[in-house]
Automatic annotation (TrEMBL):
Keywords assigned: Dioxygenase, Oxidoreductase
GO molecular-function term, one example from the UniProt record: iron ion binding
Stated name of the protein: Phytanoyl-CoA dioxygenase family protein
PANTHER family cross-referenced by the UniProt entry: ECTOINE DIOXYGENASE, PHYTANOYL-COA DIOXYGENASE DOMAIN CONTAINING 1
Alphabetical list of InterPro entries matching this protein: Phytyl_CoA_dOase-like
Superkingdom of source: Bacteria
SUPFAM superfamilies the UniProt entry points to: Clavaminate synthase-like
Length: 277
């Protein structure tokens, strides 16, 4: 989507050190306003249940059927639409992820199209509770994964931008972890932190077209969209080339089901497109 690799967007050595220390990093603008206009049109098409490729994504929110106040979370929209696929497989995003994770290969794990509606008069249902992505990815042996969160609209605290907790990627899996929890204060109060660490979330304020990156163990979440306009984005969940399948008694992640493999198998093949090199 970004065409030629945008060299000026790549992290410098100091940015890589920042990511290693804090577990997140925000890129300059990667997608132009013109590109975003087309991307947003395709996002709306998905919500109308129109799939360019004929293949349905996983758990799609449907216009006229589902709660208009709810967070829309559609997994693997890249199965369904060629333009959304170019976002999920963007080479600039792949190159940045490789640098931040010090990896030779970056593959797509899965994408997640997100839409946080503007606040209505009803009860808030579109917060994202504090969680670490890796808690949902227990079918991966190690936390060798990173998320690129592509802002389709400007985001700040007024419309529920994502917030990340610095250093939390060094804490292992914490005791409180739930994407769907609406009460973030309660979660924070119940969270047990390692000695000498503090829970101090940082808002990831961005212009449309910028991309934030967070490690699979970084605690993050987001609050209410108190504006009249929706907050739109795509979370592009990525893995390094050495990510392997782990057999667990817990339910298999929908992407692990595609592999149909044995404990220790590499995630590789067409189902997990290569973004880098
Ligand atoms: O969009 C949000 O507020 C949260 C997204 C998220 O949890 C993620 O990208 O991993």
């Amino acid at each position: 989507m970004s065409g030629l690799l945008q060299m000026q967007c790549l992290p410098e050595e100091k940015d890589i050190r920042f990511f290693e220390e804090n577990g997140f990093w925000v890129s300059p603008k990667i997608f132009s306003d013109e590109q975003l206009e087309k991307i947003i049109a395709r996002q709306d098409r998905i919500y109308r249940g129109e799939f360019e490729t004929g293949r349905e994504p996983v758990c799609n929110w449907l216009e006229g059927v589902d709660n208009p106040r709810a967070l829309r979370k559609t997994d693997n929209s890249h199965w369904s639409d060629s333009i959304l696929r170019t976002v999920a497989t963007d080479p600039t995003i792949g190159t940045i992820a490789a640098k931040l994770m010090n990896a030779d290969v970056i593959r797509l794990w899965h994408d997640q199209l997100l839409y946080k509606p503007g606040r209505g008069t009803g009860k808030e249902t579109a917060n994202v509770g504090w969680h670490q992505d890796f808690v949902y990815w227990q079918n991966c042996k190690e936390p060798t994964l990173v998320t690129a969160w592509v802002a389709f609209t400007d985001v700040d605290l007024s419309n529920g931008c994502m917030q990340a907790v610095p250093r939390s990627h060094k804490w292992g899996l914490v005791n409180v972890n739930n994407f769907f929890e609406q009460n973030l204060e309660k979660q924070q109060a119940e969270m047990e932190l390692p000695d000498n660490e503090v829970f101090k979330p940082v808002p990831l304020v961005m212009k449309a077209g910028q991309v934030s990156f967070h490690h699979a163990l970084t605690i993050h979440g987001s609050g209410a969209n108190a504006t009249d306009t929706p907050r739109r984005s795509m979370a592009v969940h990525l893995m390094t080339g050495d990510t392997r399948y782990r057999d667990t008694p817990r339910g298999r992640h929908f992407n692990a089901q595609i592999l149909n493999g044995n404990d220790g198998d590499l995630y590789e093949g067409d189902a997990w497109p290569v973004l880098y090199p």
